[in-house]
Amino acid sequence: MIKTFIYQLSETILRGEEMSWKRGAYPEFTLEDAVATLFLLKTPRGRKQISEDLDLGEGSVRTLLKKLAKLELIESKQKGHYLNEKGLNVLFQILTLFSEPAEVEKVENMPTYALIVKNPPQFKSIDLRDEAIRYFAKGAMILVYKAGEIVFPEDERPLKETLPRLAEDLKKLSPKEGDLIVVTWAENRADAIKSAIHVALTLKKNELPKEILEVGE
């Protein structure tokens, strides 16, 4: 009976911890969350909506928004939080490095997002794919735009030969010669978006505006 009671107590504690996490009792967030939030706040959004969009606890979102406000990047009104002039300037600087993740043709029937990394440094595709998976993606493709085609950098094989609909979607992102294209997919939309951002940050973190880097400090 004592063992049964201890087991039930342990289960209750674990369920309580899980519920607390879902309610956002642990205010933790990543640089990827901060960048994704800047993209979201081009239009006003409430804290609950941000929490749902990023699959992030409301406590974490509250802390993140407080930091963004302290850095004078966002303001609030009845409709929600939004980027002010300084915040829009920081976002513009980020967009000179990589684009906002865009939803594209599904891969493996999962939510799939893509972004363009501009003027990429030298990279190894396998390392970048590993980074995406480490950040909760189920899979990733690292592609480049070369001579008017989206190709795999290892052998310059055109993506359209195997995934023509995805290749067509990616061309709508208007890549330029030499651009790197990150495609990530995951079981939920938030993980697909943030894993793509994670790959971009792996390549471009050192070029980010200091204001966004300060959010994570």
Automatic annotation (TrEMBL):
GO terms for molecular function: aminoacyl-tRNA ligase activity; ATP binding. Residues 113-203 form the DUF4443 domain. The keyword Transmembrane helix does not apply. The keyword Protein biosynthesis applies. GO terms for cellular component: cytoplasm. InterPro entries: DUF4443, GAD-like_sf, PH0730-like_N, WH-like_DNA-bd_sf, WH_DNA-bd_sf. Pfam families: DUF4443, PH0730-like_N. Residues 30-87 form the PH0730-like N-terminal domain. GO terms for biological process: translation. Keywords: ATP-binding, Ligase, Nucleotide-binding, Protein biosynthesis. Gene3D superfamilies: GAD-like domain, Winged helix-like DNA-binding domain superfamily/Winged helix DNA-binding domain. This is Uncharacterized protein.
